[in-house]
Design the sequence.
């Protein structure tokens, strides 16, 4: 199916784990490509650099890793004039973006699904001079990511995110913000602002439409109140289109671009990676990268 492919995998895993992961996918991938190049990352930033420097050499880039590795690769590929097709092999804790592409969450089944060759060009978010595939968040979500216990993450996996959320949501500090978007502006006090492109967060589905990755729109939620009632409301709602401005503890905006400033410089979480600070300018690049997707992937439902 592909003449030349590269498989980028995370070098932080132990040798036994690496061997097991590669063993689960190599057979399926090799059967569908003429030449398969394996590259192991050694440190943060390697995946982005490899994609930026070598991405156009290949017909497809396979990413074996979690959301952080996907984030790096997206940032290495998004600026290329002719980016390759991208295939994700979910090897992280949550694998939220691969879930949005409707890929199986076991490596062997994901590899088989990728080899069926169904592709979709999907939207990618841009924040300042960086990119995100799944989300950008400020406030509560950043605190949640920072509060995750690394030991719990290793032992409990995705459950560690839920534990961190419950520990954080009752003590979130509000901040003042100013947000300008297509045709409007809003300001006030919030505990979290969340800009979604994808449809999953911490393995949980977000109340967004099935075509969220291909609709050319960013979905923005402004959470004004902390506490357990917030979690109850967010888990209860099936679609942000059900949102009632008069009774809800959050605001909902759909826009192609926005600017966000806060009363103090605040860290921004992009796809689970924290290295940017407000103020930020955010826009959407429609159908910027093409991904291999699972059956009934975005745009197929």
Sequence:
């Amino acid at each position: 199916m592909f003449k030349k492919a590269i498989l980028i995998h995370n070098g932080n895993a132990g040798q036994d784990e690496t061997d097991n992961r590669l063993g689960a996918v190599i057979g399926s991938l090799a059967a569908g490509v003429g030449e398969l190049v394996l590259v192991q990352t050694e440190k943060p930033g390697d995946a982005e650099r490899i994609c930026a420097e070598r991405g156009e050499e290949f017909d497809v880039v396979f990413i074996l890793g979690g959301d952080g590795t996907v984030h790096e690769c997206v940032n290495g590929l998004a600026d290329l004039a002719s980016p390759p097709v991208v295939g994700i092999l979910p090897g992280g804790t949550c694998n939220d973006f691969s879930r949005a592409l409707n890929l199986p969450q076991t490596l062997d089944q994901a590899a088989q699904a990728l080899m069926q060759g169904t592709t979709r060009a999907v939207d990618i978010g841009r924040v300042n001079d960086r990119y995100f595939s799944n989300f950008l968040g400020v406030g509560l979500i950043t605190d949640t990511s920072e509060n995750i216990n690394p030991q719990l993450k290793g032992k409990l996996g995705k459950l560690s995110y839920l534990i961190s959320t419950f520990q954080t949501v009752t003590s979130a500090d509000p901040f003042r913000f100013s947000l300008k978007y297509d045709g409007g502006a809003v300001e006030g006090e919030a505990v979290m602002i969340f800009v979604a492109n994808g449809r999953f967060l911490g393995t949980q589905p977000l109340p967004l439409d099935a075509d969220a990755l291909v609709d050319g729109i960013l979905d923005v939620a402004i959470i004004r109140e902390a506490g357990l009632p917030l979690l109850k409301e967010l888990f209860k709602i099936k679609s942000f289109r059900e949102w009632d401005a008069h009774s809800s503890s959050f605001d909902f905006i759909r826009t192609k671009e926005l600017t966000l400033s806060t009363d103090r410089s605040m860290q921004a979480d992009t796809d689970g990676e924290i290295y940017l600070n407000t103020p930020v300018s955010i826009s959407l690049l429609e159908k910027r990268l093409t991904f291999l997707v699972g059956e009934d992937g975005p745009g197929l439902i």
Summary: The chain is about 30% helix and 35% strand.
